[in-house]
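Hi R.,

Here's the chain you asked about this morning:
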Amino acid sequence: MDIFSGSLPYRMVAADAANGRLAHAYLLVCPDEQNLRPFLKQLAKLILRADARACRLIDEERYADCRIFPAEGERAGVAEVKALLEDCYIKPAEGECKLFVLDRVHAMLAPAQNKLLKVLEEPPANVYFLLGAASEFPVLPTVRSRARKLELFAFTEEAIEAHIRRKYPHRTDAREIAALSGGALGRAEQLAEGGSLSGAGEEAARFLLTLSPAGIPAAARQYAGKEECARFLPLLRLALRDALLIRLGKGALTLGGESEPLRRAAERYSAEQLVRALDLLAQTEKNLKNNANAAMSLEALFVGIVEGR
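And here is the predicted structure, written out as tokens:
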């Protein structure tokens, strides 16, 4: 996956492998659950110095020296960790080392994580562990402390735009998709596989135009659902950015189009207020990735937007 090969986690593990300084365990923290497992496989190839054949087998999850737990979409439990512990003392079948990949560690219950802790504390020779989690907070501190942490919260819009152009050449709106993705590759791919984005920012523009103190609690409840929040916040970011461009006299650069609701929303806020609103939105998204309460986070965001008006 070309976009991941330019990320900091990939470059860090590549450097460790090249210099012979691999950590016995890594923890990749990446909120993009849709791509967490593929990213882990890319890191696995680096750790194992995989050739073309091994890379193909790792992708297919059939390489003898790379065990990937659990089955896709499931949660590793005590039984899976027990099988891992038994297997890690068996010599590699093809290479000089073995790698155990645990996907979705954030979903593992404490008993399973505690059982894993034993082998992380005293790993066998030539055995490596690669853990993946959408959030580090559900991962026990004792587990986190025994792995080198790699963080990938977002890609740049430029990187996502280039990826969408490569993977979905039929899409002529890669720039708009990148802007709406919030740096999440999975979100960008979902948008690219969906329908047209024409007028996507108009809902958020109308929201900015009509937002009032009295309506904040109801608005926070309306968008607090996980899917609804993930859908609306990128639209709000796009509307705020386009409104800022209009305020700065650069309406021709808007991504969502200079609609009447957007133009009127831009008139309601100063450039400074729109910049502050974008900063508040970025902080809100960060808080939500760290499992903050959605309704409370959105209410604080909307209050900040209104107070800054």
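One quick note: The chain is about 55% helix and 10% strand.

Cheers,
M.
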